[in-house]
Amino acid sequence: MERRAINPTPWLANFSVSHAIEVKGGSRTLYLSGQTSTAADGSSLHAGDLVAQFATAWANLKEALAAADMTPTNVVRLNFYTTDVEQFMAKAGEIVPIYAADGVQPTCTLLGVTRLFDPALMIELEATAVA
């Protein structure tokens, strides 16, 4: 598989994000449902702590990737749904390194939502991966 990041302007690099990603020769595409800060039994974790919730949601996403024999480097799209955009932006310096440490520089969209399926949850991650 050949993957090419397309970045006509450099500002998104500060967030470890690409404007676009072109994939050639990929043979498998994995569409991941929204991943949240939940335990194996579905109970929510880290109420009120956006960074800890992001870290747990990212760990859950990586677990789903591994179950499909993929790694975070296969992620080409990562959407963030948050109930608190202002806090997300204020904490971006702590959030971005969580996924950037795994070599990920996907396309992204940040969406503010009224609430998630559990009112204690502040962040949900939705992704597409290609191998």
Describe this structure in words.
It is built from 3 helices and 6 strands; from the N terminus they run βββαβααββ. Helix 1 (50-67) runs parallel beside helix 3. A 4-stranded mixed sheet has the order 3-6-4-5. The termini are close together. The protein has one domain (2-130): 60s Ribosomal Protein L30, Chain: A (2-Layer Sandwich), CATH 3.30.1330. With 131 residues, the protein is α+β, with helices and mostly antiparallel strands.
CATH topology: 60s Ribosomal Protein L30, Chain: A
Shape: globular
Strand order of the largest sheet: 3-6-4-5
Q: Flag low-confidence runs.
A: none
Number of helices: 3
Please, how many domains?
A: 1
Order of helices and strands: EEEHEHHEE
The CATH architecture can be given as 2-Layer Sandwich
Topology, pairings included?
Layout: E1 2-6, E2 20-24, E3 29-35, H1 50-67, E4 75-82, H2 85-90, H3 92-100, E5 107-112, E6 123-130
Provide a quick synopsis of the model.
The protein has 131 residues and is an alpha+beta fold.
What brief labels describe this structure?
131 residues, alpha+beta, 60s Ribosomal Protein L30, Chain: A, four-stranded mixed β-sheet, 3 helices, globular
